[in-house]
# Entry
Amino acid sequence: MNEMPNLEQASDMTASKISAKKVQVYYGATHAIIDVDIEIQPRSVTAFIGPSGCGKSTFLRTLNRMNDTIDICRVEGSIKIDGEDIYDAKVDPVQLRAKVGMVFQKPNPFPKSIYDNVAYGPRIHGMARNKSQLDDIVVSSLQKAGLWEEVKNRLDEPGTGMSGGQQQRLCIARAIAVSPEVILMDEPCSALDPIATAKVEELIDELRENYTIVIVTHSMQQAARVSQRTAFFHLGILVEEGSTEDIFTNPKDKRTQDYITGRFG
Ligand SMILES: Nc1ncnc2c1ncn2[C@@H]1O[C@H](COP(=O)(O)OP(=O)(O)OP(=O)(O)O)[C@@H](O)[C@H]1O
# Structure
């Protein structure tokens, strides 16, 4: 006889990491994100795709309140991470951005040493009690970002002196150093050559074991390579979200079909 599933476990397995409901984003009078509902699964990669200006980056930035830094931007609706409303007045955006880290299009290491780039967040958040604990965090973050072997003998050199691909992996190490649960990536490979892109894509695939990753990408090939779920945005609307395989082989909406077959965008 089949064993009855443990209901608590079963519901845990399907619980979303991020749950967004009726999200609207306005820049002044411009309604940039319209009524977006999405459930983002833990420990997986979700890709946001769609033509330029459709709102992918805007929606991504709602997930760690990065839009708070834009004066004319207003967000409405509900976004919960692990069931907690991230727009609640008692949520500290600085703590939130440690839990929900971000990697940008252009690698942006600080003008500091490789070591200090990675140690920056742990120092601010008081995560290490002494130098040896800080060293441990720096080493393990660089290891997780697949960069340790390349930089272990030059930790005192400036992060800005590395290749573009190494700089981007340094930015990923910097995000990892504050023990995030979610990593948001806004076109992280668009400034990289194909070899550096392949390395970052491999890294994303490894990181999904431990982190929930959301990536904005212009490249449908990249979405197909790295993600398990794909969300297609068009004119501020989330047209369709599903398993990456379904979105690329069997889209339900004609707009998705037109986009993936290159008819627009
Ligand atoms: N800081 C801002 N101030 C005013 N309007 C903005 C701002 N950022 C984005 N927008 C507008 O919001 C809409 C969505 O832009 P967004 O950058 O989120 O789209 P996107 O899909 O990420 O585009 P791209 O692929 O070109 O980066 C666009 O109409 C854009 O002009």
Observations:
- Residues 7-12 have pLDDT under 50 and may be disordered.
- The first helix runs from residue 7 to 14.
